[in-house]
Amino acid sequence: MEIIKDVVCPFCGTLCDDIECYVEGNHIIGTKNACRIGYSKFTHREGSTRHTGPLMRENKKDDFKKVDWDTAIEKAAEILVNAKKPLIYGFSATECHAHVYGIELAEKVKGVVSNTAEVCHGPSVWALQDVGYPICTLGEVKNRADVVIYWGCNPMHAHPRHMSRYGVFSRGFFRERGRNDRTLIVVDPRKTDTAKLADVHLQVEPHKDYELISAMRAALKGFELKGEKIAGIPVETIYEAIDVLKNAQFGNLFFGMGVTQSGSKHRNIDNAIELIIDLNAHTKFTLIPMRGHYNVNGFNQVCTWISGYPLCVDYSSGSPIFNPGDTSVTDLLMRREADAMLNLASDPGAHFPQKAVERMVEIPLIVMEPHQTPTTELANIILPPAIAGVECGGTAYRMDGVPIALKKVIDPPEDVMSDKEILKRMMDKVKELL
Ligand code: SF4
């Protein structure tokens, strides 16, 4: 048995880089340090739902037939070239070199390119373009933070090693006693497993985050808060929480989809960033979004280098146009403007609104996905790639914006290429057809 050390877990935005994989033959039979989700990602790559070659069907009611790579890629390129408004979407569970080819492909076919941030942290990305981004690294949180807020997220389930590696329990350079050196504040309408660990749980009413942030900013600036409760929280508790924040030596706010997808959306994040800016008049305070997919952040970075915008980029006029709500993939599907779609490294069939999924059923759909998913069930063409971070290397961006090199641990199934290689071959074919 071979032990491969310092492997990066390609599942959530924490991108733990201390995983050990136990490899026998070409199989990962166990892991050390990974949480249960990470363990599953490494060990459940095989099985009956894994596709190991391209599949195609003309009619979505028919069964899939096996085809060779040349035929499948040529047909996929034809679909994209012949469409008036092709969408290229997903990207969050693959590595950055695939992002580059995907964005260039969208430009070539005059399509729209976007990633899953549309339905998670898109509002964070829009807000930071408006009011800035007072961020730090997870290492700084680990070594310095004595006050940590988790707002609208539940890392105990969604990012299981986040609190132990960085957020709360870890022993840092200036926080030698780990949990005993930190105050944990959780803001959540529910008493989640994360909230149960908190020193202070602010049980905000659903969709009242904006109100609470505004009250905190007002209290911080010395204004009197009127009434007994604001956003469901007693006014005295808000004052007490503000005292904790002001007296921190180094604080950090982690925020999740409970804030980005509740009422006020990106205005919540505008306001939260302003709260952090206000706190910096008293102490050092930062914020970090709790990104879900392991490389959802990477796509936003790569897309910004290439097009100037982080997601929802429409190339149909020949130049990049960014106008979420108008150029977002979900909206283009729901308005039935999109007439073809290439999806990779995401599962919109399981997560998009019903109307958007109905449009995906009507139009030609190409899916690059290693396993059977609700989205592959809607496809005309399935192009199964190697699993990035397990069967091929690459680069991914952690939730704090630190790029990390992914390792190849084992070989992919015979004849299976990486996302990057499939997209490159599709691009070559598109150039021939145009
Ligand atoms: S916390 Fe996230 S990155 Fe770390 S091992 Fe678990 S799933 Fe993987």
Please explain how this structure is put together.
With 434 residues, the protein is α/β, with parallel strands linked by helices. The chain folds into three domains: 42 residues, no CATH class; 205 residues, Rossmann fold, CATH 3.40.50; 168 residues, Dimethylsulfoxide Reductase, domain 2 (3-Layer(aba) Sandwich). The protein is 35% helix and 19% strand. The strands form five sheets. Strands 5-4-19-18-17-6-7-15-16 form a nine-stranded mixed β-sheet, with helices on one face. A five-stranded parallel β-sheet has the order 10-9-8-13-14, sandwiched between helices. A hairpin with a 2-residue loop joins β2 and β3. The longest helix is centred in the C-terminal third of the chain and has 15 residues. The mean pLDDT is 96. The structure holds iron/sulfur cluster. Iron/sulfur cluster binds next to α1.
